[in-house]
Amino acid sequence: METGKLLSELFELYLKKSSLIPHDSRGLIAVSGGVDSVVLLHLLHDLSNRFNLKLGVAHYNHQIRGVEADEDEKFVHNIATTFGLPFYRESMPLLDSQSRESWEAYARRQRYAFLEKIKQNEKFDWIATAHHADDQTETILLRVLQGSGVEGLQGIREQVGAIIRPLLIFSKEQIILYSKEKDIKFKEDVTNRFLNHPRNYLRHQVIPLLQKFNPGLNKSIRRLTQNMEEMEDLTRTVISWCRGAVVEDQNSEYIKLDKDLLASYPIYLQKRIIFNVTAVENKVINMRHYVWQNLEQFLEKSTTGDTFSLPQGWTLLRDRKNYLLKRLKESKSYPNIVDFKIDNVDHSSVIAGEYLLSLDLMSESIYYSEDPRLEYVNFDKLSGEYLKLRLWQPGDRMKPLGLRSFKKVSDILIDHKVDRFKKADQYVLTVNNNIIWLCGVQLDDRYKVHESTKRILQLGWLSLI
């Protein structure tokens, strides 16, 4: 039997067994013009009638090889036209010279964003890329050299969401033989020969030596990745169980973790739980080795009040009995200082940061509230033309209700166990530089209501999130 025929039959059997590509589905094929992606396009086109597939071809021009890159794009466009398939293309924007992201990471991110955009806009069910067994071997060896953990040693998965890799069980040699026997034309990227790229060096210099020692290297790597996938599936199940117990509270402001319970787990599980909790839209944060190591030191040696910066804007705070996780939001246009005339405060409100301050003159003799978000002050004591609402500052002092002496606002916040996240957003209402109210926390004794008070101002402090 011809190698080409054997490969096409194995490919069809594999798809039927794996259910990677459903019948009657719409698929977008990422085609660079190289032998791998062109062979994938031919294989799927040959199966399209039997599987009743509606296919599209996508090409991403990285614009790093000038005329050659443009020729690749035209080549892929011509194949799509020959097969009667819709063609989608896009050119990559230049990487910002100030960016700290590597070109490879930037190109990959942009490429997959393009594919996802086309999938969404054109209602495709899946995206197929041409990764094969040799790509998997190179990826695993690179990650071993980089000291990767269990997650990294899973390598390239056959399916991640809508992205599938139907050639992952086939070798580069099988793909090239198929192209020769079927006389399939393709373009060759000369940059794949450059040995200054770590992947190319492994491909051309290291892997051939390893294959002399172990001719079944690809199969060995495949067994390793399957074992790692099974271990990772087990780990994620355990993380899900533990997360349910560790997370005490999760709201729009922060996520609260039980510090002692978290500490009772193995350190590896502690770190994985934290990264699981900080996943955005179910996408786990990519953990660099130094972040992984530094997080371990923080969990083992931090004291109350210490903070640790995580990727994607997350901050981990060690509180008295808990860990608090908060993600920094994009800056808003709300002012941090608001001035308004005392004469115009009745039935008024003002937004500051993520809070709403309301002010109402009362007709009834109510001057006490158990709700810290609601307070009553002696309006006649507010001597001055303006009230000012601002963030508290180090050195601020006030006379807490019931005390005759001044006390630092920082100490009052500690007494009320206000964590560092909330401290950063803590406002004070002042008149003539004197604090009237530590908003939502403490009233100043100088402005309390007495039985003889004639005019009472009700203050409300409402979170907008």
Task: Give me a quick take on this structure.
The chain is of the alpha+beta class. 38% of the residues lie in helices and 22% in strands. A hairpin with an 8-residue loop joins strand 17 and strand 18 (407-408).
Walk me through the structure.
The strands form five sheets. The chain has a six-stranded mixed beta sheet, with helices on both faces. Strands 7-8-11-10-9 form a five-stranded antiparallel beta sheet. Strands 12-16-19-20-21 form a five-stranded antiparallel beta sheet, with no helix packed on it. The chain has helices at residues 3-18, 35-51, 67-83, 103-122, 133-145, 172-181, 198-213, 217-246, 259-263, 267-277, 289-301, 409-415, 420-423, and strands spanning 26-30, 54-61, 87-91, 126-128, 159-160, 163-164, 247-250, 255-258, 307-309, 314-318, 322-327, 337-341, 348-352, 355-362, 374-378, 386-391, 397-398, 407-408, 427-431, 434-438, 442-443, 456-463. The longest helix is centred in the middle third of the chain and has 30 residues, at 217-246. It has 465 residues and is of the alpha+beta class. Helices cover 38% and strands 22% of the residues.
Q: What is the average per-residue confidence, as pLDDT, rounded to a whole number?
A: 87
Largest sheet, order of strands side by side? 3-2-1-4-6-5
| Percentage of β-strand residues | 15-25%
Number of discrete helical segments:
13
The description of the largest β-sheet is:
6 strands, mixed
Based on CA atoms alone, the radius of gyration comes out at: 31 Å
- How many DSSP E strands? 22
**How far apart lie the N and C ends?**
67 Å
Which runs of at least 5 residues are low in confidence (pLDDT < 50)? none
Helix content range of the residues, please? 25-40%
Structural category: alpha+beta
Overall 3D shape:
elongated
